[in-house]
Design brief:
The chain has about 150 residues and is mainly alpha-helical. It has helices spanning about 10-15, 45-60, 70-90, 105-125, 130; strands spanning about 95, 100-105.
Length: about 150
């Protein structure tokens, strides 16, 4: 696998205005949005988080059928982070080790790993302020509906 920037989907190139005929994949797949359901195997906390954000991603026209596993991973990472954070809050960031000396709570590592996973997925879905500035949807539209250039 080659290193470098991730390719930008054609739809994003078009809405950003950076599409060039020589750089557009005419055969890029267009995923459907007709079968987005919450996976039953999610943990309880992940299910609660799914219910909070999936609809918002659908309204923003970001969520598609093939994004379900990615959102599932994000929701489980959130659930892990929340669980570890709750345990840190109840036991503290420093706990007694097996020798009786103070050590960092092992939940700090768990929370940090889950946070890193969440951060990566948040960016993929455009769910951070900076990543959202790079995404635009056709929903925004033009102020003038009779404008022939509104679609661009």
């Amino acid at each position: 696998m080659a290193a470098g920037r991730k390719p930008v989907p054609t739809a994003l190139k078009i809405v950003k205005g950076t599409d060039q005929p020589c750089r557009v994949n005419g055969n890029e797949p267009t995923p459907k949005t007709d079968n987005i359901i919450m996976p039953p195997e999610l943990s309880e906390m992940a299910k609660q988080h799914w219910q909070q954000i999936c609809g918002q991603l659908q309204e923003a026209m970001i969520m598609t059928n093939i994004d379900v596993p990615a959102l599932m991973l994000y929701c489980e990472a959130f659930a892990t982070w929340r669980d570890a954070t709750d345990k840190i809050q109840s036991t503290g960031a420093v706990v007694k080790g097996k020798d009786g000396y103070p050590v960092r709570s092992p939940y700090l590592f768990v929370a940090q790993k889950a946070f890193d996973q969440m951060k990566s997925m948040l960016t993929e879905f455009g769910m951070t302020p900076s990543s959202r500035t790079r995404v635009s949807t056709a929903q925004g539209g033009s102020e003038n509906p009779d404008d022939p250039w509104a679609q661009f």
